[in-house]
Every structure is written in structure tokens, then in C-alpha cells.
Specification:
By secondary structure, the protein is α+β, with helices and mostly antiparallel strands. Helices cover about 40% and strands about 15% of the residues. It has a nine-stranded antiparallel sheet with strand order 15-14-13-12-22-21-20-19-18. The chain has an eight-stranded mixed sheet with strand order 10-28-27-26-11-23-25-24, sandwiched between helices. Strands 2, 3, 4, 5, 6, 8 and 9 form a seven-stranded antiparallel sheet that branches. Strand 26, helix 25 and strand 27 form a beta-alpha-beta unit. The longest helix has about 40 residues. The chain is elongated and about 125 Å long. The N and C termini lie far apart (about 75 Å). Its EC number is 7.2.2.3. Its cofactor is Mg(2+). It is found in: Cell membrane.
Length: about 1050
């Protein structure tokens, strides 16, 4: 591999999760360099210019199965000298710049079109045209204002959501060190070409996809690309046998956008720009959301027809969230109904369509359209975003807020979302059989967080802020002190404390921060729990560093030698079990027993670390004689004798099992999802055993053996899932609950499989690798703290605390919004149905000339729909969540917002309201023999007194009944007089019920008060509203109000008695 003259980079061990097993897909032997054409290798000879000759290349997917000489041969490059300058320029011209292409251009007009691409808006536009056609400029102007309000709010909400691809630019490394013509040059990363030789060091961002040629103690952070929770050790000498090895397991490759966390290395560029793994993700994002590429494989007329069909679906709003689709279909239905009603009016007049008949027909048609629905929906969802922000969820698209309430499945990442994203030493097993366990850790860096049990005894924490050791061997095991000293001294991590100004006592009095490798931090914190952290040991003066042999990827262990005062010195070692076990003074039976215990810990999903030590002669490792070893500046040959001596015939001390602990809230959140009928899936880049252990601990998987996990495919590795066809996936009884070693395409296929099952899914993620699935899912949720910019821009929601529990909060808020949308839909539609009944039957009210007299004037209809009903509906949109909101299954997506209960209720209440309004008009119109008068639809004159008073009575009745409906709609089954028995009881509980929602109470009060000036102001009543002041008619209004309340309460009682539409809580309470 050549000779390295630079300093060795100190690093820490990253032991495998398995015990001594070795992947069958990895070979440590390098095939002969004379056979570069291996299976899976693709060699292209492309000539753009005959003078330039063929451009060497290979399939990047094959690089990890080839030895370094073969890669060099295929790319015609030299490890010692790199590419010639002329050759690099030629390849740059052929391959293009090493940068990710931006998204397809998106104009502001496209975003604007989205806001009007729903049927309800189109129907309102048609209504506006009709209003202007009959010279009703007030109604037309108000509807235009409603439409503009909705467009403005939606436009600014969606604008930033379409900037997804641009965030990928930030991931590109601006410069890098490349070997060109025998010299190391700092060049722009975008000038790299396949075949370039790149030098990597700690902190560097990998500028392209590289096949490693040399590596010394190299590790990379690939969390944003693969989801791997800890840095991955890289080994240039390893050659993989299988081409389809997941990205996270390709240990001889480093990928663009990952970061070097330890060591150094040299790599050969095998892919640049859009050919890199990040570029492939960008290409997936460029293809857009689900359905964007459905017509790609079609040709000719069929493709044109498909595009036209898709265009109509978009314009009519039939491609979106369930609520958007339901409301668009509903609007089309209303439009058809409006036309039907107009036809009925014209037919009654025997198609003698005079100006009066035309106006009346349009009024009847307009009455069926809930003009304020779109505005109320927009305002309610916008206000819902404030509530979500308080729950640590930022809404990037308003439609996602209601969509998340219908979720049936959640696909969640593990690291940092379900878990804390930090390593903790969970289990320790010592050579004498002592077992130590740590549970309930909420702050991984805090030594006093959680509980520690030594065998069956709970250990009492020492004063962790003190540097003095506080360890009693009589209460534990003598070997435990040796274990703690070794993991504390053979450790380069630092854990420091600082006073917390917010309190002065208890656990919260001190906050802890840590620097170093995650595994070493976990071990240092574990030692500090017993008061034997490295600072405490060194402060006593009894320990002095003599020599250190850092971790190296070739030996997978680290050893230090410390003088122990007058007691000589000890060598302390830790590392992978397979690296230390051959060096221990143990017989075969003892080794078998240790291996079995290590496999047992690994089966729990723990990363197993071996700890050993032995006494040594201090003089052998005195600094003056081992300067080369301690400073690590001479060759490996010079250091090997001392290291071999220190690491020979070691005494086994124990095993440590480390893991990334779940968040405290995760288990409760998973349980809440299960009660709500939501299935949670874990899709992670981690090892399958780690994923299984965490999934079992937090409740995604049931404890093994109870048979409740649902089939043999509950836990799968992504490589196995990816080999299945869509038909095979669809044939599964249930989709996997745990998918390990996931790639971006795996997550996308999982989402597509859910869509084929008619599931409505949420996808969470933080990395670049999650972006395509976030874009493809029904609702994408990104992490705000540790998420990449690409993931945030691709998502519909962003969690500001990266906490899975916040997703449950979002779902609860979404369900609350869904319930409230049903409530204000009920209110608005009851009003519309009542008006349609009133106006249609009102055709029978005719003046002496046979001309129908309007029971309501056009402006009264508009006032009821846009003023009275709008604020009442908005108040219903602000209702608190029902007690059982997370104790019932998700609503049926095939039914949508218009459930059977909602439809029946709106017709019963609407019919009752319409009938009572007719009764109110009739009781006044025919109470005197004067008749309805002539021309009373246009203006007031002496003969119109009865008509105008009857119209005012009907308007007042409609207004008061709408006010009562607003309070009754707070719950579909419970009585207004006993709506919250768990909170309020007694005859006065109704007042507490109506006072609970202050906005709704204010809207009802305002609606009641404002009805009087509308009726009594002289100019306003006769000229604007076409009605007149009333007196004794108030008795009719109050009588209709009492009767309507009785009808509603009676129907609710029937529903409670026969269980019609009742929602049963977990405990069975209705």
C-alpha cells in the first residue's frame, strides 16, 4: 500500500455488533491485479473527439468488488502520480463538472396555479361571474375577496416548499486535495473527474464517491447518507464479493457529502456529479412526487391522453390530500346540484325566463354553495400551525396539517428520532460473573442519569461533581474497579460539567458536555458513575501515562500503559473481541464461554467491547526509552516490539455492551399510536440486531415469543426486501415493522407498497438519503436539529426537537382539525340545505301577478353564508380535541370527511331548519289578508309591508337557528346540556360548555347582537336587505328556536340510544 510518513492519527475502536462472525461478502485477500475484468464490471470506451481517444470509466456500482489495481487500470490512473493535467481537463470536458444539477425550473405561475387548482375555487369563480351577470356586485366582490385571501395565504405558504434541490449545493465540498501530475494540489471540488487521486483528512467533506486506496485509522460519518448512527470504520484493503451490498456496509468506499471523523486516507474518484449516490438522490427528487413519472414510459397518443387526464385532475384538485380530494369532489357535486336547482326553478316557470326568474334561479343556485368554506378552512388550518409550533412541529404546507390526521402508518428513522442519538454503556459482564446494568438514562452525558444495578443491588451514586474516587469494593466486585480503571484510562474522551444557572440542587444542578468518539464517551461516563472517571484517577497522582498505542483499523484495539505509583505499572487494553481474545492468557473453554457471552450481548443489539489488562514493568515503557511509541512518529516496525509486549498474555477483565438508548417519550408515543390504530415501522441504516433490540424495547415489536408481531417478514434487511418484486411485497400479510440497512430506494419502495395497500403514510427522516422518501410519502417529516437541509426542504413538516413524540402530537392535532372541519362543515351545509329548501318551496309564495316573492333576499343569503356562518364555523374550527381523539382508529380514507353520520345529521338538521324558516315566513305572510304586494323583490313600497316583515322574520329565525347549531355541533352525539360530564355537571353546566370556547361564544354573541341593527336600521333594512322592522314576530322567532333545539336534542338522544355514529372509547364509554 506504500509507505506513510505522516503522523498516525489517534482514534478509537468501533467494534462490530456481531461477536466473532465475519460477513460472508467480505474477502481480505486481493485478487491478482492482472485480471481487472471481473463480474459486474462495466468498461466503456466513449469517444467524443477522435483525437482525444477513448475516455476510461467503470460502473461505480462495481468499485467495491474490485481490488485497487483493477480500479486504477480501468480508470487509467496512477496512485503515485495521479492524472496528468491535460488528461484531467479532457475528462472534465467529457464528464462535466462535479456538481449536482438543480431541480427543474419552477415558475411562480405554477405555484399560483396550485392555489386555484381545486374544484371549490372554480365553483366560486363561476358563482362570481353569475353574481356580476345579475348586477349583484356586492356578492361578487365578497366572493372575489374570499378567493384572493385563500390564494395569498396558500401562495406564500407553498413558495419555499419548492426550493428542495437547491439545498444539495451546500453539501458539496468547496475544495479538496488532489494528486495531479505527481503533485498534491488544492483544487475546486467541482473540477474533480473519475480517476483523480484525492487525499482525505479529519474534518474533510468527501468531494465525490471514492474507492479507498490507502487508509489509516479512517472513519466517516455517513449518517446523512445511510442513517448509520455512529461513524463507520473504513478499510482500503477489504474487497467485497457482492455488488448489492448496502451502502452502509461498503467499508472500502467513501461517499460524497460524508465527513471524515478520524484518520486519513487516499481514494480514487469513481463517480462525480449526478453519478454519485447524492446525485442519484437528487435525480429521484427531480422526478417529483408520486405520479410525476407515470407517463414516462408511455408514447404517442396514450401519453398525450394521460397528460391531459393528469392535467384535469390537478386543475380540479383531485390529486392531493384526502381532504383536498373530498372537498373538490364535493364542490363538483354542489356545482351539479346548483345547476339542477336552477333548472328546477326555470321549469316551474315553464321556461319563461324573465329577469325575475333568472335572478331567483341564480339565488337558489348560489344558496347551495358554501362561499365561506374555503376561507374558513384556510384560516382554521393556518391557526392550527400555531398550535403545532407549540408542540415543536413546524408546518411547511397547510394541507399537511389536516393530512397527518388521517395517517395509518408511520415510517420512522431510528437514530436521533426514536433514540437519543448518543451512545450509553448499558450492560457490563465481568470475568467473575458480575453483571452491571444501566437503565432509564435520559441524559447520556450525565453520570447520575438513570439507575445502575450491580448484580441485584442498586448502586448509590457518588458525588459526581467531585474528582475524588468514591468506590467501595466491599459493596461491589474487586474486578469492577479494574474494569473501571481500564475503560477510564484507556480513553481519550473528555466529559466536563458546568453549573446550571437555572437551579442549584439535584440532577439539574449540573450540565455535562462531551468531546470524543461516541463509544469512548459512553465508557468514560460509565466510569464516572462510580467516581472513577479519568479526571478523578489522575487527580490522585497515583496514575501516570507511560505509553499509548492508539487504535488502528488493522488491529482494532487500543492500549495504554500507566504507572501505578509504587505498585509498578499496568497495561490497559480495549477493542474488538476478535482482536483481543487471541492475546489473552485463557484456555479454550474460557474463550468459548466469553464468546458465548459476547454473542448474547450482541443478540440484544449491543455493540460489544472487550476489556483486558495486565501488570508490566514500568521501566520498559519509560518515556526516555519509548519516545517513538508514545509520540507515534516512527515506523510501525519500530513500535511493534513494545506494543506486542504490552498486548501479550493479557488478563480478561470483562465485556461492555453499548447502545443508543431510546428517548424517554418514545415508548409512550408508540403505545399511543397503537391505541389510535396507527402502525409504526422503523426504517434505519443500522444493523438489524440493533434495530430489533430498540424496536422491541419501545414497543414497535412485541416481546419475542408472544406471537403478536404478525408474520415471518416482521423484521427484514433491506437487501432482502429490495430483491422482492412488487407482487411479492403485495402478497405479504403485513409489511415489515423493522427494515434494517435501508437505502434511499428501499424507503421509496416501502412508501409505494403502502400506497398500493391504500395506506396513508408519514415518512420521517433526517439525512440526504431520506429526501426521496419524504417527497414520495403522503406527509414527509424532517428533523430540525440534526437533519440535513435537503431533508428539511423536501418535507411537509419539520420537528424542532427531533422527537418521535412530537409526531404523535402532530397526528393528534391533525385529528382534532379533522373533527373540527366536520363540525364547521356540518354547520355550513345545514345552513345551505335549509336555504335551498326555503327557496325552492318558496316558489309557491306568489304575489297577485303570479310572481314568486323571495323568502330571503340575495343579500340576506350572502349575509347568512359569509358573515353569520363564517365566524361561527371558524369558532368550531378552534374547538379543543375530543377526549377520545387518540383512542379510535384512523378515519376511513375511502369515505373521507363526509362520513355517514355527517351526511345524515346535515340533512336532518337542514330539513328541520328549512321547515321552520318556511313556517316563520308563512305565519307572517298569511297572518293578514293584505297579501304579499307587488314588485317586492326589487324595492319597498306600501304594499310590501307584509312581505318585508315576513322576510325579516325568516332572516331572524335563520340567524338564531344558525347560532344554536354552532353550539350543538360542538359534539355530534352528546347533548348541549351535558356535553362534558367528565368536567361539568348540574343544570348550569351548559353555561360552562358554551363559555369553554371563547371565540365561538363571542361569535354567537356578536351574531345575536348584530341581527338587531340589520333588522331595525331604517336605510339598511329596507334598501339593502329588503326587509323591515318587526315586533310581535319575535314570538315566532323564539318559538322556532325552541322547537329546533328540541329536534336536535331528540335526534342526539336517538343516536346515543341506538349507537348511531357513537365513538366508543377504550374503556367503552360513549
Amino acid at each position: 500500500m506504500g509507505t506513510e510518513n505522516e503522523l498516525d492519527v489517534e482514534g478509537q475502536t468501533e467494534p462490530p455488533i456481531r461477536g466473532l462472525t465475519r460477513s460472508a461478502s467480505v474477502s481480505s485477500s486481493i485478487p491478482p491485479s492482472g485480471s481487472p475484468t471481473l463480474a459486474g464490471t462495466i468498461v466503456d470506451s466513449i469517444t467524443d473527439d477522435p483525437a482525444s481517444g477513448p475516455v476510461p470509466s467503470l460502473n461505480p456500482e462495481s468499485a467495491h468488488v474490485l481490488p485497487v489495481p483493477a480500479v486504477c487500470a480501468l480508470l487509467s490512473t496512477d496512485l503515485e502520480n495521479g492524472l496528468a493535467t491535460v488528461e484531467a481537463a479532457s475528462r472534465l470536458q467529457h464528464h462535466g463538472a462535479n456538481k449536482v444539477e438543480g431541480a427543474k425550473g419552477l415558475s411562480l405561475w405554477t405555484i399560483l396555479l396550485r392555489q386555484v387548482s381545486n374544484s371549490l375555487t372554480l365553483v366560486l369563480l363561476i358563482t362570481t361571474v353569475l353574481s356580476f351577470a345579475i348586477n349583484d356586485y356586492i356578492e361578487g366582490g365578497v366572493i372575489i375577496a374570499v378567493i384572493l385571501f385563500n390564494i395569498i395565504v396558500g401562495f406564500f405558504q407553498d413558495y419555499r416548499a419548492e426550493k428542495t434541490i437547491q439545498a444539495l449545493y451546500a453539501l458539496s465540498a468547496p475544495t479538496c486535495k488532489a494528486l495531479r501530475a505527481g503533485k498534491v494540489e488544492t483544487i475546486r471540488a467541482e473540477d474533480l473527474v473519475p480517476g483523480d487521486i484525492v487525499r482525505l483528512g479529519v474534518g474533510d467533506v468527501v468531494p465525490a464517491d471514492l474507492r479507498l486506496a490507502h487508509s489509516i485509522n479512517l472513519s466517516t460519518d455517513e449518517a446523512l447518507l445511510t442513517g448509520e448512527s455512529v461513524p463507520v470504520s473504513k478499510h482500503a484493503e477489504i474487497i467485497l464479493k457482492a455488488r448489492d451490498v448496502p451502502l452502509g456496509d461498503r467499508t472500502n468506499m467513501v461517499y460524497s457529502a460524508s465527513t471524515i471523523t478520524r484518520g486519513r486516507g487516499t481514494g480514487i474518484v469513481v463517480a462525480t456529479g449526478m453519478s454519485t449516490e447524492v446525485g442519484k438522490i437528487a435525480e429521484l427528487l427531480r422526478s417529483g412526487r408520486r405520479g410525476a413519472t407515470d407517463t414516462q414510459d408511455q408514447k404517442g397518443l396514450r401519453r398525450l391522453v394521460s397528460r391531459v387526464q393528469n392535467g384535469f385532475r390537478v386543475v380540479l384538485g383531485l390529486d392531493g390530500t384526502p381532504l383536498q380530494v373530498s372537498l373538490s369532489k364535493f364542490a363538483l357535486l354542489l356545482f351539479a346540484l346548483a345547476i339542477t336547482l336552477a333548472v328546477i326553478v326555470f321549469s316551474v316557470s315553464r321556461w319563461r325566463v324573465t329577469n325575475e326568474v333568472l335572478i331567483y334561479g341564480i339565488c337558489v343556485a348560489v344558496a347551495v354553495i358554501p362561499e365561506s368554506l374555503i376561507a374558513v378552512l384556510t384560516i382554521a388550518t393556518a391557526l392550527g400551525t400555531r398550535a403545532m409550533a407549540r408542540g415543536n412541529v413546524i408546518i411547511r404546507r397547510l394541507a399537511a396539517l389536516e393530512a397527518v390526521g388521517g395517517v395509518t402508518n408511520i415510517c420512522s428513522d431510528k437514530t436521533g428520532t426514536l433514540t437519543q442519538g448518543k451512545m450509553v454503556a448499558k450492560r457490563v459482564w465481568l470475568a467473575d460473573g458480575t453483571e452491571v446494568s444501566v437503565q432509564g438514562t435520559t441524559h447520556p452525558f450525565h453520570p447520575a442519569s438513570g439507575t445502575v444495578r450491580v448484580n441485584d443491588t442498586e448502586f448509590q451514586f457518588p458525588a459526581t461533581d467531585s474528582v475524588e474516587p468514591n468506590f467501595d469494593e466491599k459493596k461491589t466486585s474487586p474486578l469492577l474497579r479494574d474494569f473501571l480503571e481500564t475503560i477510564a484510562l484507556c480513553n481519550n474522551a473528555g466529559v466536563t460539567s458546568s453549573p446550571n444557572a437555572s437551579s442549584t440542587t439535584g440532577e439539574a444542578s449540573t450540565s455535562y458536555t462531551a468531546m470524543g468518539e461516541p463509544t469512548e464517551i459512553a465508557l468514560q461516563v460509565f466510569a464516572m458513575r462510580f467516581g472513577l472517571g479519568k479526571p478523578a484517577l489522575l487527580a490522585s497522582g497515583a496514575h501516570r501515562l507511560l505509553s499509548e498505542f492508539p487504535f488502528d483499523s488493522s488491529c482494532k484495539r487500543m492500549t495504554v500503559v500507566y504507572a501505578d505509583g509504587d505498585n509498578g505499572a499496568h497495561a490497559h487494553a480495549k477493542g474488538a473481541l476478535e482482536a483481543l481474545l487471541p492475546l489473552m492468557d485463557l484456555d479454550d473453554d474460557q474463550k468459548v464461554h466469553i464468546v458465548a457471552k459476547a454473542e448474547s450481548l450482541a443478540a440484544e443489539g449491543l455493540r460489544v467491547l472487550c476489556v483486558a489488562r495486565k501488570p508490566v514493568e514500568a521501566a520498559t515503557y519509560a518515556p526516555d526509552s519509548t519516545k517513538a511509541a508514545s509520540l507515534a512518529i516512527e515506523s510501525d516496525a519500530a513500535k511493534m516490539p513494545l506494543r506486542a509486549t504490552a498486548e501479550s498474555r493479557l488478563t480478561f477483565v470483562g465485556l461492555a455492551g453499548l447502545y443508543d438508548p431510546p428517548r424517554v417519550e418514545s415508548a409512550a408515543a408508540i403505545r399511543k399510536c397503537r391505541d389510535a390504530g396507527i402502525t409504526v415501522h422503523m426504517l434505519t441504516g443500522d444493523h438489524v440486531k440493533t434495530a430489533t433490540a430498540i424496536a422491541t424495547e419501545i414497543g414497535i415489536l412485541a416481546p419475542s415469543g408472544d406471537g403478536s408481531n404478525g408474520g415471518s417478514h416482521t423484521i427484514m434487511v433491506a437487501s432482502e426486501f429490495d430483491t422482492l418484486s412488487d407482487a411479492q411485497i403485495d402478497a405479504m400479510q403485513n409489511l415489515p415493522l423493522v427494515l434494517a440497512r435501508c437505502s434511499p430506494t428501499t424507503k421509496v419502495r416501502m412508501v409505494e407498497a403502502m400506497h398500493r395497500r391504500k395506506a396513508f403514510c408519514v415518512m420521517t427522516g433526517d439525512g440526504v438519503n431520506d429526501s426521496p422518501a419524504l417527497k414520495k410519502s403522503d406527509v414527509g417529516i424532517a428533523m430540525g436539529l440534526n437533519g440535513s437541509d435537503v431533508a428539511k426542504e423536501a418535507a411537509d413538516m419539520v420537528l424542532t426537537d427531533d422527537n418521535f413524540a412530537s409526531i404523535v402530537t402532530a397526528i393528534e392535532e391533525g385529528r382534532r382539525l379533522f373533527d373540527n372541519i366536520q363540525k364547521f362543515l356540518l354547520h355550513l351545509l345545514v345552513s345551505n340545505i335549509a336555504q335551498v329548501i326555503l327557496l325552492l318551496i318558496g316558489l309557491a309564495f306568489k304575489d297577485p301577478n303570479g310572481v314568486s316573492v323571495f323568502p330571503l333576499s340575495p343579500l340576506e343569503i350572502l349575509w347568512a353564508n359569509l358573515v353569520t356562518s363564517s365566524f361561527l364555523a371558524l369558532g368550531l374550527g378552534l374547538e379543543d380535541a375530543q377526549p377520545d381523539v387518540m383512542q379510535r382508529p384512523p378515519h376511513d380514507l375511502s369515505v373521507g370527511i363526509f362520513t355517514k353520520e355527517l351526511i345524515i345529521d346535515k340533512f336532518i338538521y337542514g330539513a328541520a331548519m328549512g321547515a321552520l324558516c318556511l313556517a316563520a315566513f308563512s305565519s307572517v305572510a298569511y297572518s293578514v289578508p293584505d297579501g304579499l304586494g307587488l314588485g317586492c323583490n326589487e324595492e319597498f313600497h306600501a304594499s310590501c309591508t307584509v312581505s318585508f316583515r315576513a322576510r325579516a322574520t325568516t332572516f331572524a329565525t335563520l340567524t338564531f337557528l344558525l347560532l344554536i347549531t354552532a353550539w350543538e355541533a360542538k359534539h355530534f352525539t352528546r347533548s348541549l346540556f351535558a356535553m362534558h360530564p367528565e368536567k361539568y355537571s348540574g343544570p348550569l353546566s351548559v353555561f360552562r360548555t358554551v363559555w369553554q370556547n371563547r371565540f365561538l361564544f363571542g361569535a354567537v354573541s356578536a351574531g345575536f347582537v348584530i341581527a338587531f341593527p340589520v333588522i331595525y336600521l331604517p336605510v339598511v333594512n329596507r334598501i339593502v336587505f329588503k326587509h323591515d322592522a318587526i315586533s310581535w314576530e319575535w314570538g315566532v322567532v323564539m318559538g322556532c328556536t325552541v322547537v329546533y333545539t328540541a329536534i336536535v336534542e331528540a335526534w342526539k338522544a336517538v343516536k346515543r340510544r341506538f349507537g348511531l355514529g357513537a365513538r366508543v372509547l377504550v374503556g367503552g364509554e360513549v
